[in-house]
């Protein structure tokens, strides 16, 4: 995909994620946001806290990768690792994956501050996507969070973050609906 179209697509998705959180989750009572559809599942706030933990790592890593402007290539390219990582987090994928322990928020005491923090991360991500227009998105510059010797290309990492957020925001919305149904 051409770099400008790729970045516009990601920016549109980030705005959509922000809107969903602001309109569908933020107005809900905290008790509902902490409700779990099943004991082994995450609540909506746990889903978003999981994303916050990833944002705390990836937003600064992306900022470092984008710090050095370069001539952008016309096409965003993918490595084997990038394709595999993206396939794992695509929102349409029904396959569940275990998360690493320090990224698992299960059992955390959470408040709506989790949503507010997430929205701040989204503003940072939107700014990073603007900055990415002057970067080489095919440069391997972003260490994978759980195994930092491996690096994603900058474009892959940007797409990974957005797809991962879409997946878990959709999960949070499903969890809220299921918690509402269980309460009836």
TrEMBL record:
Annotated ranges, domain DinB-like: 25-172
Protein name: DinB family protein
């Amino acid at each position: 995909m051409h770099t400008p179209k790729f970045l516009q697509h990601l920016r549109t998705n980030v705005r959509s994620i922000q809107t969903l959180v602001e309109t569908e989750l933020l107005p809900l009572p905290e008790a509902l946001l902490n409700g779990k559809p099943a004991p082994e599942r995450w609540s909506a706030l746990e889903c978003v806290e999981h994303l916050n933990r990833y944002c705390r790592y990836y937003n600064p890593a992306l900022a470092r990768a984008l710090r050095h402007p370069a001539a952008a290539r016309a096409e965003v390219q993918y490595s084997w690792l990038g394709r595999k990582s993206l396939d794992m987090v695509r929102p349409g994928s029904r396959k569940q994956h275990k998360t690493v322990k320090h990224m698992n928020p299960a059992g955390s005491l959470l408040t709506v501050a989790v949503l507010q923090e997430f929205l701040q991360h989204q503003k940072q991500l939107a700014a990073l996507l603007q900055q990415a227009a002057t970067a080489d998105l095919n440069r391997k510059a972003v260490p994978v969070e759980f195994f930092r010797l491996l690096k994603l290309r900058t474009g892959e990492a940007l797409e990974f973050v957005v797809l991962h957020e879409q997946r878990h925001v959709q999960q949070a919305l499903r969890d809220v609906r299921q918690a509402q149904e269980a309460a009836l």
